[in-house]
Amino acid sequence: MKYTLAFLLLTISYLQIMAQKKLPVVKANSSKAIILEEDTGLKTDWNIDPSVKPDVYTVTKISKGSRTVKIKTDIDSIRITVKQGEKKDFIILLKDKDSCLTRIESAVPKNFSTVRPAFHDSIRLGINEQNTMFVKTLLNKTDSLVLNFDTGSNNLSLTRETLKDKIKEQLKGRVNVLSIGNKKYDGFRIYQVELSGHGTDGRFGWDLFDGMVVELNYDKGIMVVHSELPEFVKKDKAYQPLDIIYFDQLFFVETTIKQGRKTLKDWFLFDTGYQRTVMLDGPLLKEQQFPADQMKIIKKVVMKGGQGNEIPVITANLESLSLGKYHLKNIPSQVLSESRPVKDKKMNILGNEILKRFNIFLDFQHNVIYLKPNKLFNDAYIEKQ
Q1: CA distance 371 to 319
Q2: Quick count: other Cβ atoms within 10 Å of Cβ 275?
Q3: 3-state per-residue secondary structure call for 30-80
Q4: How many helices (H) and strands (E) does the chain have?
Q5: Rounded to an integer, what is the distance from CA 118 to the centroid of its chain?
Q6: C-alpha distances in Å from residue 111, one per residue of 37, 84, 231, 366
Q7: Percent of the chain having pLDDT more than 70?
Q8: Average of pLDDT values for 310-321?
Q9: Which residues pair with 45 in a beta bridge?
Q10: Are 253 and 240 in contact (CB under 8 A)?
Q11: Which residue, among 312, 248, 292, has the nearest Cα to 67 in the 3D structure?
């Protein structure tokens, strides 16, 4: 029996080695590598660790098709392409002796459309004079919090003041549950932040609703979380569909801006947590040959950067901004003189002073946004009031 068990273990070990031999192999002399998502531009510093088997890198959420990742070591490289829900293994051979099993994977897409009974959970939605959108929530059945739904963030962030004065129970070492309306959400991380939207205790991100559909109806003053997209949305031709693409934990929609004879179509961060109209990255616009210098200046201010550095910000008149077939004119827009990239990505931002003018369906199942002008569409911009 003893010899049979030993033979069986040797056989399993041999089969594992043979299986690994069939995997692609990339060589490395240094434990430092770079993983680059070629279609998003997301770059991640990667530590090659032989003790972790497999060492897993999960790509940014895939909207459609597949995602190609390039893994570059100090002496070699390899490309791996994965589809939604797929995973692929390969070997990094470190210093010709350590075999590091590495996995590139795409998370299995979440989809609540098959949940029965279907849910359509309606929550009272508020918006204040500063364009902060908020809902009332309950954390761990004890702490009532007013939170901003910030699509430009993820997980749950609470201000230092909230954590100090409003949270009654220890948050670490437990499964935290956030109640919004009749539904409960868990599996998120909690971060401390210094600031949140005006009048709120913190903010929660779009990823709480991954695989669901979120309706923001400013006409009725409600936020509704759906298990699937209501049938009437696709039938109503007034709703403009816009595809979503993802970068790390952020999502973007295609936006067109125009100044003079120049028209620029690009992907803008969809950010209900940004209270103004749009934030335009000056250096990025210059690279794209967009004539931001032709925009009429409304005012100039100085912002403080994360390191305490001063960043001049100009508010200037943007001639036109379009989301699909809907066009907005003469938008007071912030133009940054210095880029504020996220993980090396320069970006322009769509804020809630624009987004509040539409009733919106955020379809995180099919990665599409539906927009329809609401009663706020023709309101004057706060910057001009």
Answers
A1: 21
A2: 20
A3: CCEEEEEECCCCCEEEEECCCCCCCEEEECCCCCCCEEEEEEECCCCEEEE
A4: 5, 29
A5: 26
A6: 24, 13, 17, 9
A7: 92
A8: 90
A9: 34
A10: no
A11: 248
Range scoring the smallest mean pLDDT among 4-18, 177-191, 216-230, 283-297: 4-18
Residues 6+ apart with CB under 8 A from 6: none
Place of tokens 């695989």: 211
Residue carrying structure tokens 């070591």? 73
Residue 344, SS3 per DSSP? coil
At residue 5 the predicted structure's pLDDT band, cuts being 50, 70 and 90, is low
Mean pLDDT of the chain: 91
User: For residue range 26-74, what is the model confidence (pLDDT) as tens digits?
Assistant: 999 999 999 999 989 999 999 999 999 999 999 999 998 999 999 999 9
CB of 215 closer than 8 Å to CB of 227: no
Q: Partners of 335 in the beta sheet?
A: 280, 314
DSSP 67-119: EEEEEE-SS-EEEEEEETT-EEEEEEEETTTEEEEEEEE-PPPP--TT-SS--
Measure the CA angle with vertex 385, ends 339 and 360; round to 5°.
65
For CA atoms 370, 376, 380, 385, give the dihedral sign.
Answer: negative
**pLDDT over 50 (residue 7):** no
| 3-class secondary structure, 263 | strand
| Domains located in the chain, CATH noted | 22-105 (no CATH), 110-228 (2.40.70.10), 236-385 (2.40.70.10)
- What pLDDT, on the 0 to 100 scale, is given for residue 259? 97
